[in-house]
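User
Take a look at the entry that follows and flag anything odd:
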Amino acid sequence: MNQGRKVQGLAAKGMPECRTIAFNKPYGVLPCFTDSGGRPTLADYIDVSGVYAAGRLDQDSEGLMILTSDGTLAHRITDPRHKLGKIYLAQVEREPTDDAMGRLRSGVVLSSQRTRPAQVRVLADAPLIPDRPVPIRFRKNVPTAWIEIILREGMNRQVRRMTAAVGHPTLRLIRIAIGPILLGDLPPGKWRDLGPEEIAQIARRME
């Protein structure tokens, strides 16, 4: 179904329109709207009612989140059966070896479960990204490298566990894409509405 026509149809019938937004989650923010401990949450940045996160992004990770009031869309984004690719940039300890990269590509056993094959490459240069408010753990004699990794599943803290399993712990992690939706130049702590065509692109990727 054409998402633009669907939204227009709902509005014509007096029904509430679905809302879907992209948010650049800063480091240290919980991926939820409430916290009994008073820690920073999505509510400190997003003033849109009725939207919920379609997937998680750990407190110590940064980057793209999609939030929506469309339950069907949220389920399709998070359901691993649709194999919607998510792209991450990870700063890891030491330059990854060919063996480590091969293991990441073929799948790593985590808690007795092998991850799906991933697309992984080492970046020649560090990405142009804003500084993190809390600097990474720095060790003078341990160099770091940046890798790009594309996953099509969502195990708990998967990227960090995968890189640690092959001997290259992740120091900083940023998600830059969910399917066809890119983080782009959206600043940390800011959000924007997704347009009908962007939402339609998500649906097409999951067909």
